[in-house]
């Protein structure tokens, strides 16, 4: 899946977006999960600030 996201972003406007990955701990089980998202460069800090 990551290859498709990167390939589509390279066609146009990809320089303004970044794929970000955040590790999130589940409150029920205590296990960690990864949350991935493609966000605009201006919104990166907002992505990491929210839970």
Neighbour order of strands in the largest sheet: 1-2
Q: Uncertain runs with pLDDT below 50, 5 residues or more?
A: none
Strand content: 35-45%
Percent helix: 25-40%
Radius of gyration, whole Å: 13 Å
How many domains is the backbone divided into? 1
Globular, elongated, flat, extended or rod-shaped: what is the shape? elongated
Please state the average pLDDT score.
Answer: 82
Helical stretch count? 2
If you had to describe this structure to a student in words, what would you say it looks like?
The chain is an alpha+beta fold. It has helices at residues 2-11, 44-49; strands at residues 17-25, 32-40. A hairpin with a 6-residue loop joins β1 and β2 (32-40). The protein is elongated. The protein starts with a helix and ends with a helix.
Quick recap:
This protein has 51 residues and is an alpha+beta fold. The protein has 2 helices and 2 strands.
Q: Can you lay out the helices and strands and say which pair or pack?
A:
Layout: H1 2-11, E1 17-25, E2 32-40, H2 44-49
Antiparallel strand pairs: 1-2
List keywords for this structure.
alpha+beta
């Amino acid at each position: 899946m990551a290859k498709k996201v990167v390939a589509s972003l390279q066609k146009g406007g990809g320089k303004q977006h970044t794929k970000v990955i955040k590790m999130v701990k589940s409150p029920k089980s205590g296990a960690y999960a990864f949350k991935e998202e493609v966000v605009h460069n201006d919104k990166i800090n907002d992505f990491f600030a929210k839970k």
